[in-house]
Amino acid sequence: MPAHTTFRDAEIRNLLTGPTGPVVRTVETVARRTGNLARVFVPVDKGTLRGSIREIIVIRGQLVVGRVFTPLEYGRYQHDGTGVYAGRGPIEAPPGKVLVFVPKGGGPTIYTKRVKGTPPTKFLLRALRIASPWPVRDHSG
Questions:
Q1: Is residue 32 within a helix (H) or strand (E), and if so which, with residue range?
Q2: pLDDT tens sequence across 31-60
Q3: CA distance 115 to 27
Q4: Which helix (H) or strand (E) covers residue 60, if one does?
Q5: Contact in structure between 138 and 122 (CB atoms under 8 Å)
Q6: pLDDT, greater one: 45 or 14
Q7: Which end of the chain is less crowded, N or C, counting CB atoms within 10 A of the terminal residue's CB?
Q8: What's the rounded Cα separation, in Å, for the pair 14 and 23?
Q9: End-to-end distance of the chain based on CA atoms, in angstroms?
């Protein structure tokens, strides 16, 4: 008589989406590694953006999703860049106004009508590419 194994639906669901199942544990590990690397790669001024990086696991039916993100709006601008670097053209002051920048390290205040913007850092994408055992593609454009 041949040996066989019988799996029940509940056991399969637990393996795939249960909190202690191997799929959820693997996604948690990749998300945690991605978050830790993102904290290394993110540009730091005061550390607010670095401290805001979070990881969560979301289970929707049979789908297990690891999310690594920052709730801070400017995190997207650091990641994707701004102005010409984000494909939107230069950042320009409104008519009759100027953009004002105070250098962090000191020096004279800068007044200008337009700037190129900020280059992208892709700190999350860079972290995911290193942490993930699966291929990672950039869909941001």
A1: helix 22-41
A2: 999 999 999 999 999 999 999 999 999 998
A3: 41
A4: strand 54-60
A5: yes
A6: 45
A7: N
A8: 9
A9: 58
